[in-house]
Design goal:
- This protein is of the alpha+beta class.
- The chain has one domain: Peptide Deformylase (Alpha-Beta Complex).
- It is 24% helix and 30% strand.
- The protein is built from three helices and seven strands; from the N terminus they run H-E-E-E-E-E-E-E-H-H.
- Strands 1-2-3-6-7 form a five-stranded antiparallel β-sheet, with helices on both faces. Strands 4-5 form a two-stranded antiparallel sheet.
- The radius of gyration is 15 Å and the shape is globular.
- The protein starts with 25 loop residues before the first helix and ends in a 23-residue tail after the last helix.
Length: 181
Amino acid sequence: MAIQPIRIFGDPVLRLAAQPVTVFDKELRTLVRDLTETMKEAPGRGLAAPQIGVSLRVFTYHVDGVFGHLINPGLDLSEEEQDGPEGCLSLPGLTFDCKRAYGVVAKGFNEYGDPVTVEGTQLLARCIQHETDHLDGIIFIDRLDREQRKAALRAIREAEWAGDTAPQVRVSPHSTFGRAL
């Protein structure tokens, strides 16, 4: 297990749709452990593989004392919405109110390839939606209204970490196309 550097807003890997996991092996289990350890160290409520430079559809979460992960997630969202504060490890120190579905049913797989269903509301629903967005190349500020987005972009430009991006994406053997993104 190794703590990995977290990619910061502006890194191109954060804007790419991640590839589905097709091989459930020891290396994937190492990725899940690395994501979990990095998330705990940060600390954060969730972390998606693209945030550590791996373009695969994997994320971990830690909500209400429960650690978990989901691979190749698909979401069913409630019609009821919630509005509340949201932050991101790839946007250190910034928080903005973001509208999300109040509830979610997420279906995917665990690190061994077994089917998993995670149901949640409020914070768990927000976390699962946020991390799944990362797998689709979406950052939560993309979901803000126009004025909030302008404020977020201003805050990003003024942040001391602005412009700190990693130079390359780690190539994973799980990638279906076998090249760096």
